[in-house]
Every structure is written in C-alpha cells, then in structure tokens.
Amino acid sequence: MSTSEIINAIINGFTAVGTIAVAILAIWGDAIKAKVAGPKLTLVAHNLRGSVVPITQGPRSIFYHLKVVNSRKWVRATNCRVILKKLWRKAPNGTFQEALLSVPLTFVWAPAEITPPYVTLVKDHVLDFGIILEGGDNFSPRLFSYTNNFQGFVRANEVVRFGLEIVSDNFISPHLQVFEVAWNGRWSNNLDEMTQNLQIQEVIN
Fold first, then answer.
1. 55: which residues sit within 8 A by CB, 6+ positions away?
2. What are the DSSP calls for 33-57, one per residue?
3. What is the helix (H) or strand (E) element at residue 20, kind and residue range?
C-alpha cells in the first residue's frame, strides 16, 4: 500500500468516526450533555429534628425538611421538582413490602405558601418532607395532592420508606433516594423528646 493510500485510509477512517459521532450526538446528545455538563443534584437532610410551627388557631405542627443540593452551581436545574416514586411498608415479620402507589406524586417546596411546584435551582432549595399535627394520628408526607388510596401516611407504631426522585429539564436522579420514617404514636412539642418518638433516616443500600 502506497503512502497516499495509507493517508486516504486514515482520512476515511476519521470521516467514518466523525459520522458515527454526529449520529450519536443527534440521538443521545441531550442525555450526554446532561450527564457531563448538567446540574448534579442530591437530597440531603436539612432539618430531620423537626421545627415546631406555632399557629393562632388549630393544632400546633412539626415540619421536617430535606434539601436538594446542586454540586455544579454553575449550571441551573430548570423546572426542578422532587417526586415520590415508591413506597414500602414494614410488615409484621420485619420485612419491607412495596405498597401500591397509583401515580408518582410531587413534594412541596418550602415555604409552601409562595413557592410553585417547579423551581429553578442554582445552589440548593429546601423541601417540605413531612408534617405531624398535635393530636393527629399520622405523619404525612407533604405532597401537592394525594390519591384516594394513598398508603404513605405513617401511623402509630408503623414504619414507612419513601423512594424519592429529583427531576428537572436537564437532570433526573440516577437512582431513588430512600428515607425511612418510624413513629411510636406519641406527640411532644419538646423536640428532644420528639426525636425519640418520630425518627427519620436515609436508607443507604
């Protein structure tokens, strides 16, 4: 093979590789861009000890918060929300069994009164994870809506695990983050006591 033929073969090879690369980018370009240069979001504990919210009328409440953190602060996560994708309830034999969740449900950002379901997230944003009312019979995850057959309320002596997913225009969680809630049915506005009554922890597989 002559030198010119070798050069032509190399050029043809680079052309073929370039053509394939263009095709790959055309099909999976957005996914590749999001993976390499998009935001990187994760859920972390923000206030799992709880925060007592006094109100003028009605029962007192304790709110529990998570936070979505973006470790690539130079890239905004647009239309970001946190979704409840799966539920597991602890059975009498100690194992966790997946509970029916008809459709994914969206969590409420804090403060709920002024924050829409979708936010543009740069650095971090606090999420209302759940609430328990004085005199109430359950811990309730803070969702914009609930299905009629929702099985995610945590009542006395129950343990429920919540599988959460972060979604935005340019990000989706590579795996669910799971948070476990256990409650013995007792209420106290003393948070030191309440941390013994209601416990929240992330489950790391």
1. 61
2. HHHHHS--EEEEEEEEEEEEE--SS
3. helix 3-37
Q: Is a pLDDT exceeding 80 seen at residue 56?
A: no
Strand-pair category, 105-106 with 171-172: unpaired
Question: What is the helix (H) or strand (E) element at residue 6, kind and residue range?
Answer: helix 3-37
What digits encode the pLDDT tens for the residues 22-53? 444 445 444 444 455 799 999 999 999 999 88
The CB-side HSE value for 142 (13 A sphere, CA atoms) comes to: 23
Dihedral sign for Cα atoms in the order 117, 123, 124, 125: negative
In whole angstroms, give the CA distance from residue 202 to residue 205: 10
CA atoms within 13 A on the CB side of 117: 9
**Each residue's pLDDT tens digit, 71-111:** 999 999 999 999 999 999 999 999 999 999 999 999 999 98
Question: pTM, whole model, 2 decimals?
Answer: 0.81
3-state helix, strand, coil in the chain (%, to 5): 20, 45, 35
What is the DSSP secondary structure assignment for residue 170, as one 8-state letter?
T
H-run or E-run covering 17 = helix 3-37
C-alpha–C-alpha distance, residues 187 and 102, integer Å: 30
